[in-house]
Structure formats: C-alpha cells, structure tokens
Amino acid sequence: MESRLGYSRPFTHIQAGKTFLKEILLDQSDELHLSCPQKDPDCPVLNELHRLQREVKRLEGLTQIDPLTGLFNFRHLVHALEAEIERSKRTGLPTSLIMIDLDRFKSINDHYGHESGNEVLKEVARVFFENIRRIDIPCRYGGEEFAIILPGTYLPQAALTAERLRFALEKNKFRLKNETVKVTASFGVAIYDGSEDLSPEAFIERSDVHLLEAKAKGRNRVCVVESKEGVRPEGVTLDEKKMLFDKAHQGES
C-alpha cells in the first residue's frame, strides 16, 4: 500500500519527516491536509512538523510587528500599501494614507530620557489604535513617525480621521516622572484613486509632503492634498458603520 506521496511501506517516521519538511515550510496552507504515512494517530514527526509550522507563522508575524508599540512596522506598511494600491486599481475605491510625526519629540527624550520617550510612543500608539476602524492599518514608520492606511476611504473621511486622531492625542494626558506632558503631532493626508501607476514609496512621499506642510504651518495640525479626485460627499459608508459598530462592541466585551 502506498502513502499519498507514493512511497511503499515500510516508511519510517524519520523518512516521513525528511520528505514532508520542505513541503510544509514552503506551503503552510497544507497543515490541515497532512497525515502520517504510518497512519499513527500520535505521529511524533507530524506533531513536530505542525509545531514548526506554528512557529514559522509566529515568527513571520513578528517580522511585521514593531516590538515597542505593537503596531505594524515599516515592512508591513510597504506590503499593505502594495496590496491596497492593487485593490484600488481593481475596484476603483480609493485608498487614503495618513503620515504622522510627533511634534518636538526630541525635547521629550532630552528632558525626560529615552525610556520616557519610549513610554510616550507606546501611549501614542494606543491612542491611535483606539480611534481608528478595524479595517484601518496602523504602522510605526520609524522613530516618532507613524502611518495609517485607510482602505476604501475617500478624502473627506480621511481628513476627518486625521483630525480625530490629532484631537485625541492633544487632549490625552501623558504622565512622565510625575509631570503632565502635552504631546501633539502633525498630519499629512494623501489619497490614491487607482487611476495611475503608483509605488508604495511614491504614495508615502505624497503624504509626507503634506506632513511637512503641517510642520511648516506651525505643527499640531492636519494638511490634506488639494485634489478633487476621489472626493465624495462626507459621511460614513455602511461598511464603515459596521466596522465601527463591531469595534465598539468588541471594546465592551
């Protein structure tokens, strides 16, 4: 009798492990379809391979998470932008991108120390995460810069989201060494409507232009691309309402 790989019995666990290992690590989606060639319900090699699969998935996830803030990192930002750009091309629905830079963050590090600065970054990430939809993609761009991808979002809604984040950050009370510290940020917003070829790097640069504009105009403000492309009347879509409703109830549980 032959196994599903075409090997005739006897077929040892060690042979099975060597045969399956490369296939499993390259195609993790096969986990549920694997079976022991020896028909052993407690196959030690298969159990180990499943453990390795789970570990590979865990490590893969870690490579896309910023360890300090728990947000996605720059690597995931680029990959997610690639995916959303392609989605916009395919569906015609826009993708918006908010670039964020904390104002005068160096002075916090200089006055309170880098550990306190790290605590501020973690708290900023929490504020951002609690004020976006489940479908939005919050990332730490690097240092004190953040980026948030807003899938299927038109310019008015993206601008409102940026302003909501700016206000939430401004009113948040940061406690550093028994002192209350005010932390603000500048925001730049750009939109992609799928009508042109655009790289993730170029999209980031578009948003960054308006971020620098916000800095130049005095910080703690939102600057948005001046374009009518992708703009529709303000409001919240049914999908957005559902996402916000689900997130609110998740927070209550």
Structure summary:
Helices cover 49% and strands 15% of the residues. It is built from 8 helices and 7 strands; from the N terminus they run αααβααββαβββαβα.
- For the secondary structure, the number of strands is 7
Rg, alpha carbons = 24 Å
Largest sheet: 5 strands, mixed
**Quaternary organization:** single chain
Low-confidence stretches: 1-32, 228-237, 247-253
Mean pLDDT: 80
Strand content: 15-25%
Helical amount among residues, as a percent range?
A: 40-55%
Tell me the strand order in the biggest sheet. 2-3-1-6-7
Q: Compute the number of helices.
A: 8
Which secondary-structure class do the elements indicate?
A: alpha+beta
Order of helices and strands: HHHEHHEEHEEEHEH
Shape: flat
Distance, first to last CA: 53 Å
What distinguishing features does this structure have?
single chain; 253 residues; alpha+beta; 8 helices; disordered N terminus; disordered C terminus
